[in-house]
Design goal:
The protein folds into two domains: about 60 residues, Helicase, Ruva Protein, domain 3 (Orthogonal Bundle), CATH 1.10.8.10; about 210 residues, Vaccinia Virus protein VP39 (Rossmann fold), CATH 3.40.50. The protein is about 35% helix and about 15% strand. The strands form two sheets. It has a seven-stranded mixed beta sheet, sandwiched between helices. Strands 1-2 form a two-stranded antiparallel ribbon. Helix 6 packs parallel to helix 7. It starts with 12 loop residues before the first helix and ends in a 14-residue tail after the last helix. The C terminus is likely disordered. Bound molecules: glutamine. Glutamine binds next to loops.
């Protein structure tokens, strides 16, 4: 046997990365280089930076096998977040499973909005309706220890994931409540309600693209116009929010006018829409009418919780 007949040298980290990126480029909506690096990091237990700093290293055979398995499942359409079992949101890594929506970066806008608009040190009761993995409730609970977060969720599977995320991250000021929107909450019991409800129209072709087919349909689709969840949630919020309290909602890029109309019809005031980093109108907020104009605008001693003039 001559040296040339021996087994080929196993591929290096860089060779695996390049080959995977090349194959992932065939997937629609994939980010091939990022995904190749995330999967390689997952398979080897290394950080992405380490992989890039030592490209010539050769992974152990079981790491290479694990990588091949992850790559095959990704090429078969399994979302990256499900392969890794976690997804970054705000400052945390959240555990996610097929029972929950995969947290999206645009939803961080709701977190920013709540942090901007609500007083940081007041003992507020803030609900996250349809919490899914618990992303919004967790981010707010950790940012604002003085607040109490109610993470409301109908799906038992998602509620279990949310509870696990809150527990793992030590968010002792947040708890999960199994609920159909706000059903168990008392009237005028909330200082703020933040929600990323389902809002995609049932027949929208996006539902069959990218990761969406692998996510719970109930967390994504909401009737023929995608507005059914807003139609349920906004009137309930009108009852459960205190006078002057904040309601902030994520919505589709073209739904701001409809959401603003629903909020106005339910008597919300100071209705304002904010755009996401991609420039899409993505979240709209309003204040529950109080009957007392001063309190709506957060003047001292009022029932309103919003800081300053909206
Ligand atoms: N923004 C998500 C998407 O379009 C949808 C999330 C939702 O329905 N709340 O992929």
């Amino acid at each position: 046997m001559t040296p040339g007949d021996g087994p080929a040298t196993p591929p290096s980290l860089d060779e695996l990365r390049r080959d995977a990126a090349h194959r992932l480029a065939a997937l629609p909506h994939a980010e091939p280089w990022l995904e190749a690096e995330l999967l390689l990091a997952e398979a080897t237990g290394c950080r992405r930076e380490t992989l890039l700093a030592w490209p010539e290293r050769i992974p152990a055979p079981e790491q290479a096998r694990r990588f091949a398995d992850l790559l095959a499942r990704r090429l078969a359409g399994v979302p990256i977040a499900h392969l890794r079992g976690h997804q970054a949101f705000w400052k945390q890594e959240l555990r996610v499973t097929p029972d929950t929506l995969i947290p999206r970066p645009e939803t961080e806008l709701l977190v920013e909005l709540a942090l901007d608009l609500l007083p940081a040190t007041a003992p507020l009761v803030v609900a996250d309706a349809g919490t899914g993995s618990g992303a919004i409730a967790l981010a707010l609970a950790l940012e604002r220890p003085a607040w109490t977060l109610l993470a409301l969720e109908l799906s038992p599977g998602a509620a279990a994931v949310a509870a696990d995320n809150l527990r793992r991250q030590g968010a002792t000021n947040a708890r999960v409540i199994r609920a159909d929107w706000l059903a168990p909450l008392a009237p005028a019991s909330l200082d703020a309600l933040i929600a990323n409800p389902p809002y995609i129209p049932n027949a929208d072709p996006h539902l069959s693209r990218g990761d969406l087919p692998q996510e719970p349909l109930g967390a994504l689709a909401a009737g023929p116009e995608g507005l059914d969840a807003f139609r349920q949630l906004i009137p309930q919020a009108q009852i459960c929010l205190k006078p002057g309290a904040l309601l902030a909602l994520e919505h589709g890029y073209d739904q701001a006018p409809a959401v603003r109309t629903l909020l106005a019809a339910a008597g919300f005031t100071a209705i304002t829409t904010r755009t996401d980093l991609a420039g899409h109108p993505r979240a709209t907020w309003g204040l529950r009418a109080s009957g007392d104009r001063a309190s709506m605008f957060g003047s001292p001693g009022s029932g309103g919780v919003c800081r300053g003039t909206p």
